[in-house]
Amino acid sequence: MYKCWGKVRKHNQRGRRLGFPTANINLTKNIPEGIYVSQTKIGNKQYPSLTFIGPAKTFDKKKFLAETYVLNFDKNIYGKWISIKLLKKIRGNQKFASAKDLIKQMKKDEKEAREYFFNNTFGRKSVQNSCK
After folding, report:
1. In 3D, which of 13, 53, 58, 50 has the Cα closest to residue 33?
2. In angstroms, rounded to a whole number, what is the distance separating the alpha carbons of residues 81 and 43?
3. Structural domains of the chain, ranges and CATH numbers in brackets
């Protein structure tokens, strides 16, 4: 699959307002758009995550970036370097009719990611433990 890394930068914080705070990095690699189950390394620790690659079509954005929602994580990591390993693509990039429709799909994506990790050795321990 793919791996990318970068410094977490402050963007418009839309993910946080939607209930899914994300770590945003610029992309220099050509990675197919979509939603991926991923593993994010922050410092020396690996975390289960869900990563969006591409422009936010629902909000008519054109900028291509990576937005990673780290499961069970609630720390400020702006300015820190992270690496993201994409493990499994679960769907393509879509434009939703409303933010409400997007949130509904994001909850389904999160459920799929949690199931993926629960069924794998890495995730079973990580998904059940809080990283706060």
Report:
1. 53
2. 8
3. 3-126 (2.40.30.30)
